[in-house]
Design a protein that fits this description.
304 residues; five-stranded mixed sheet; alpha+beta; 5 strands
Length: 304
């Protein structure tokens, strides 16, 4: 399981410069490249000048005044995907659209809206033909932004940049299991890509919202059919009664978890090490957690 390594990579962000920590993070997932540029300016204006994009870069649209630093990390082409020797010995090939450009940007505020991060990503990508990946850092959080692209139907050899997908607000101190799972699935060896087009398609599939939803409900369904046959409820003797009881447990748990994620209830209600201070008996033989916390949260919210 890659999650401990990913969490370890997160721990480098408070201690290392952003560019170095970002490289450690991507190397953990199997991404690295010799297509790099050293010594670039890290302010927005100097960065645009160094890349020759000052005439097309729009700092106001990119919220550039909130950038603490911007870093070009590396470029990934088909050669890097297949671990072949690149034709280039450093730098990057601006003319290649069949590649990813990896960037890292540190922002000043503690939080940012989805729309702001999407707009910054689009503006950063405008001058380049290749789609980009941006690792944003702000406060104690990371957001991974990925630009999708499709072939231009009118002009062969050119691409149209489409939607921006975000893996948003990854907590560096206590990352959400769902975020770790997505990052695990983006590990380069696991994607089994043999060229850049396959890599792009694999990234798109992992991050597709409908695919994520399908996977979630498939796993939930599998758990339900397993739990229905093994759980025991005092007032549920038949299979139908157990099914209803399990469904009730799932829906109430999901609702309680949702209001916890929205910050509407204390997180201590969901941290096992703190149950002792909240409940008289926490042994698995009794149902005090369900009756004392989950059920009360559910009905208290409905009656509010």
């Amino acid at each position: 399981m890659l999650r401990p390594q990913i969490s370890s990579a997160f721990s480098t962000f408070p201690t290392l410069p952003l560019s170095q920590a970002a490289l450690v993070f991507w190397q953990t997932l199997g991404y690295h490249s010799d297509l790099r540029l050293e010594g670039l300016p890290t302010d927005a204006a100097g960065f645009a000048q160094a890349f020759g994009i000052a005439d097309t870069f729009r700092p106001d649209k990119a919220f550039a005044t909130s950038w603490k630093s911007v870093h070009f990390l590396f470029q990934v082409t088909g050669e890097e995907v297949t671990a072949q020797n690149s034709l280039f010995q450093g730098g990057f090939d601006k003319a290649r659209s069949d590649s990813y450009l990896f960037f890292a940007v540190e922002l000043e505020a503690e939080s940012y809206s989805r729309s702001t991060l999407v707009q910054i990503t689009r503006e950063l990508n405008r001058p380049f033909q290749s789609p980009i990946l941006v690792l944003f850092k702000y406060g104690q959080k990371l957001t991974l932004a990925i630009v999708d692209r499709r072939a231009n139907k009118r002009e062969a050899g050119r691409d149209v940049l489409e939607k921006v997908t975000l893996v948003k607000d990854i907590n560096l101190v206590s990352p959400h299991p769902a975020h770790l799972r997505i990052l695990e699935e983006l590990e380069l060896p696991k994607l089994r890509a043999t060229n850049w087009d396959e890599l792009h398609a694999a990234w798109r599939k992992v991050l597709d919202l409908s695919e994520l939803n399908k996977k979630f409900y498939r796993e939930l369904s599998d758990w339900f059919f397993w739990a229905r046959n093994v759980v025991r409820f005092p007032a549920a003797a038949t299979e139908q009664e157990r099914s209803v009881a399990v469904i009730r447990l799932i829906t109430r748990t999901m609702f309680a978890y949702f209001i916890k994620e929205r910050g509407l209830v204390p997180k201590a209600f969901f941290e096992p090490e703190k149950f002792g201070a909240l409940l008289k008996d926490t042994s698995p033989r009794v149902s005090t957690y369900y009756n004392g916390i989950l059920q009360n949260l559910f009905f208290a919210a409905l009656n509010a």
